[in-house]
C-alpha cells in the first residue's frame, strides 16, 4: 500500500481491504514463486494428489465458487483437464453423478464453511484426493485435505470478499501453471513468462485504485436509484460478472444477476430498461484471437442494446476507442493477458458495490443476514 494510503482513515474495512489487494496479491505470489519460477515444494503435495487425474471437481460456495468458475476455464484451457464446478451445498447430494474418479478441489475463504467442508469429507470418503484453497493455513479444510494452497491474503474483516477473492484467482492461476507443467502442456520458459505477467499485477492494480475509486463513486451516484442490474461477461469473464452481481446484492441489497453475455437475448433482455442498467465486460487481450472474437461479439451486443435504449456501464481495455461510443460510463482496465484480466476487472465492480451500499446508508462491513463463515448448513 502506498505511504499516502497507509495513514488514510478508511470509513469501512471493505474499502481498506479493496486497497490492500495489491499487497495481498504480492504476498500470495511470493508464497508460490521464487526467481520467476514456481516453488517445487509449494506444489509437491498438489502434484502428488492430482497426478494422473484427467478430471477435477471444484466445490465451493458464494464468491469462492465464482473463483472456481474462473479456475475451470484456466485449468481446461491451459492444463487440459476436464473440470466440473459444483455448488458445495449440492455436491454431497449428487456427487455420484459427477465426473468419475476426479481430483477434488475445495475453495473457501475461511476454510471452515460447513457445506464446503462436507464436500471435502464426501470426496475423501470416496477415496478421492483432495486439495484445499483457503485463506487460513491452519483451518479444518487445510488440515484435512491431501494438499493445501493457502492464499495468504491476511485477515479480511468485512463480510463481502475482496482480497480473499483476488488472491484465490491468483492461486488458481499458479495451480494451473503447475498442472500445465506437470502434464507436459507448457514449457518452463512459457510458465516463466506467464509468471512475470502475474508479478506485474500488484503494481499495476495499485496504480489504478485511486482513479477507479473516483470514477466508481460517480457511477454509483448516477445509478443509486436503479431497481436492478444485469452483469454480462463471456468466457472466463462470466465468472467476474457473477461476482460483480453478488457483490452488489450482498453489499447494497440491490437485485443483480450475472449472465453469459450471449444469453441476454434468451429471456433476461426483458428486464433491461433505463432503471435496470447493464454492466458489460468488454475487455480484450489483443494477443489472443479468441479474446478478440469475444470482444467483437460483446461490442456488437452493446450496439444492439444501445439501439434498444439500454443504459450501459462498460469495462473496456485502456485506450479502447469503440466502447466509449456505446456506453454511458466506460471504466478503463489496464491491458493484461486474457486470464489475468479477471483480477483487474473485479476491483472496479467491488468499488461499485461499496459506493452503492454507502449511498444507501448500509453498514457495508456487516450486511444483514450474512456472516463471514457459514459454519452451519
Automatic annotation (TrEMBL):
GO molecular function terms attached to this record: carbohydrate derivative binding; glutamine-fructose-6-phosphate transaminase (isomerizing) activity
| InterPro entries in the cross-refs | GlmS/AgaS_SIS (IPR035466), GlmS/FrlB_SIS (IPR035490), SIS_dom (IPR001347), SIS_dom_sf (IPR046348)
Reactions that this protein is recorded to catalyse: D-fructose 6-phosphate + L-glutamine = D-glucosamine 6-phosphate + L-glutamate
**Which residues are in the SIS domain?**
46-185, 219-367
Please provide the Gene Ontology terms (biological process) for this protein. fructose 6-phosphate metabolic process; protein N-linked glycosylation; UDP-N-acetylglucosamine metabolic process
Q: What keywords appear on the UniProt entry? A: Glutamine amidotransferase, Repeat
Instruction: Extract the Pfam families matched here.
Output: SIS (PF01380)
The coiled-coil segments of this chain are none
EC numbers? 2.6.1.16
| UniProt-listed PANTHER family | GLUCOSAMINE--FRUCTOSE-6-PHOSPHATE AMINOTRANSFERASE, ISOMERIZING (PTHR10937), GLUTAMINE--FRUCTOSE-6-PHOSPHATE TRANSAMINASE (ISOMERIZING) (PTHR10937:SF0)
* Protein's UniProt name: Glutamine--fructose-6-phosphate aminotransferase [isomerizing]
Naturally occurring in which organism (per UniProt): Alloacidobacterium dinghuense
